[in-house]
Every structure is written in structure tokens, then in C-alpha cells.
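Table S2 (text version). Query chain:
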Amino acid sequence: MEFKSLNEIENATSRGRKEMFRFGTALLFIVMIILFTSNLQTGTGAVPVELVVAAMIGGYMALNIGANEVANNVGPAVGSKALTLTGAIVLAAIFESSGALIAGGDVVSTIKKGIIDPAMIGDSDTFIWLMIAALLAGALWLNLATALGAPVSTTHSIVGGVLGAGIAAAGWSIANWDKMGAIAASWVISPVIGGIIAAAFLMWIKRSITYKDDMVASAKKMVPILVSIMVWAFSTYLILKGLKKVWKTDFMTAAAVGLIIASIVYLTVKPMIARQAERLENSKASVNSLFTIPLIFAAALLSFAHGANDVANAVGPLAAINDAIQSNGVSTKAEIPLWVMLIGAIGISLGLLLFGPKLIRTVGTEITELDQMRAFSIAMAAAITVIIASQLGLPVSSTHIAVGGVFGVGFLREYLKRSYQKTIQEIRDHHQGADQQEVEEFIKRFEKASLIEKKEMLSQLKAHKAEVELSKKERKSLNKVYQKELVKRSAFLKIVAAWLITVPASALLAAIIYFTIRGMMLP
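Corresponding C-alpha cell output:
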């Protein structure tokens, strides 16, 4: 009895112990940052307390980016079972860190997206307080969003923080409202473009492979083409965005190099896929397996590019504060020292390892059901949308694109299911009064028919009898059933609400923090 009681107590407290381990490990990371920065060798001799505080908050921000935003890169791969949760976390941690350290950039803009005018900031002390407030506000908002299970944009969190602290420091005129309008527009542009591209790719895959009679033969032809397009998109994306520290070039050169790489990959993978396809059954589930390895590569490349680009969201304000302390002034660009980049890279990886699983599950499994084809379409949408947006100068969010892709795939599935159910209902209506067995046999033939045969069968039906329309009430009821089944509306509404309030919430937090810091620092 005593052993049973002890086991029950141990089981009841296991979750609490795990949470304490995560919290303790994160706290240890922050303490290590404090100890490290306290012993830095600076040009002025003693290490300013502002730099220690900023480094501590920068580490906290990096932890939250790893916990929240990295899930978008690997969530679809986990949801489709191309990767296990552990495998995805390890892969993302390695490639996020590699991207940050190899291609993370030497300099960073001190005023993110140019949303406030640095000339209106009076002195370096005010600038340092402003950036500390912005960094802490962005980190706190990300922490709250992660706790609520909502994937939000780190870029928008920092933008809101800088905007709120800037207004608190110098008034409303400091803000560049044209830039803010473009950022607000990206709340709609990013997920819509990502969703449309993901849905388009999935529809292409369905029409060219899964709607064919011989799916294996179609897959042997189309999968190498799809993989080559993926390689072209990712090569161009990485050359433009991820490798700009190593090699800075224009779009046309990047696209041409990407096309050469894609052509080589096509010639390499075509015989490999053909050999693998020979062992497959003629079924959708079997053909799905051909997308597993490309999807793993896509998750790795997205993580690398994210580490190269978005680590600046964690360490950019810290680099700006370090530059302001060293130069005793305010500049528009700041160098990123290696120790600052290491804080960002390690913090993002650690945040992913400790707190990432919650958001990975949200993106991968809690919005809509994903398989490898759907997840591949989402990865393609993420890469292509960022390329398009960068060429058009649109300030899109990688988080919004990836999650928008998940929604796009889910809503396409709803549309296809709803349309198919409507077609079945029309068949039954056309056969009203006929023998029930005859109706069921026709439906079975229809379900097994190819896409072309289905069209012919429907056209023959309509030629014999006029279409019978469902009533509005019946149609609405039918739509509601399939919407609930394929896309979780609660997850959709929660995520959209979090996106809409990210900038205002982080701005308000930053203003409050700035006034608090100024109140404490002023004599």
C-alpha cells in the first residue's frame, strides 16, 4: 500500500518536475549570460550594468523565439510524421544555430524596419533605455503567446516594442506611420499569399498524382519535378537571404545559380525515385512516402534560413545597445560581436529544446490533419512567398506565411470534401425513385473512376436530368459539418486574434516598461 501511494505521488508530481527542470535550465542559461557579460573586456574598463541587463533580456528573448517561432519550420514535418518530435527538435536546433553563426550577418539595423526616427532620440542613455524596453516587451509577449499556444511573429513583437518605447520616449511624431501601415498590411498579405501558394501546390500534386489511375507511374514522373522546384526555390532563398554574409548577390544571379543546382538535383534524384517507386503500392498512402526525405530537407533548410535571418530579432537590440555604450552615441547600424551572436544562437536552440514541443504540436497537428504531400506544399509556400515578398519589398512574416500555409491546405481540403459531398448528393437526387442498389453501385463506380471518367459520368447524368439544388439550410448544414472536421475553428480564431494584437500589445508593454525604467534611472 505504501509503495502504491509513493508511485501515485510520483506520477502526480512528474509534470511539475519537468516544468521545474525546464524553468531551472532556462534560468541557468540567463545566469551564465550575466556571469559572462559581467567579465567582458570592454574599451571603457568596467562593464556597464545596462549591457549586463540587455544581455540577460536578449537571452530571454532568444529562448522565447526558439519556443515559439521555430515551430513553424518543423511543425508540418512532425504533423505529417515525416519526422518524430525529438528528431525535429534536434534537426532544427542544429540548423538554426548553424544559420545564425555561419550566415547571421555582421551588422544589424538598430531601428528595426526604420519604424522610428533615431534623430529624435536625445542621447545614448535614452536610446539604451528604449531598446531595453522594446526587447523586454517583445520577449514578454512571445512568452505569453507561447503559453497560450499561439504562434506569433517575432518581427512584429520587436516592431511593436520599438514603436511603443519610441513613442513613450519622444512622442507620436517619432513613428514612421507609412512603414507601420506596410507592416499592418503584412498581417493580411503574409498568410493569404502563403495559404494560396500552399493550396495551389497541393492541388497540383492531387491532379498530377493522386487523381490519376496509376499513381505510382505519375509519381515517378512528377516527384522529381516537384523536388527540383523545391531545390530551386530554396537555393534562391538561401543565396539571397541566408548566405548574404558569405555571398551577397542580386535576384537574377541567385535564381540562375538555383536553377543550375535544381537541374543537377533533378538528374540525380529521378533514377532514385524511380527505384523507390517500383516497390510501392498504387495508393495515396504509399506514394506519400516519396515526399518524406524532401520534406526533411525542407525543414532543415527553413531552419537554417530562419537562424540566419531572424536571430537578429533576438540579438539586434542587444547589438544596438552594445554599440551605443561603446560609441556613446546613436547610430543606424551596429556590428554584431561574436558573443552576442552566440547568445542568440544558443538561446534559440535551448528555447526550442525546452519549450518548443507545445507550438510544434499546435502547428503540426492542432489546426488540420497533415500528411507528407500537404506538409511539402506548406514548405514550398514558405520559401516561395518569402522570395516574392523580398522582391516586392513587402515586410512579410515567416510565421504568418507558414501558419497561413497550414490554413490554406486545410481550407482547400474543406472545399474539396464539401464539393465531393455535394456531387454525391446530386447523384442521389438524379436517381430519385430508382432502385437503391443501383444508386449505390453507381456511386461506387464514381468513387473508383479517374478524374476524366468522373467528369464524363456527371455530364451524362446532367444530360438526362436537370440538376437538383440543395436548399440553403441543407447546404449550410453540410458546410458546417466539414468545416468542423477539417480545420479547427478555435485554433484559427485564437491564432488570428494573437496576430492582430501582437504589435499593439508589445507596444503598450514597451511604453510601460520604458516609463518604469526612466522613473528608476532619473534622479
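Notes on Table S2: The chain has a mean pLDDT of 81. Residues 2-38 form the longest helix (37 residues).
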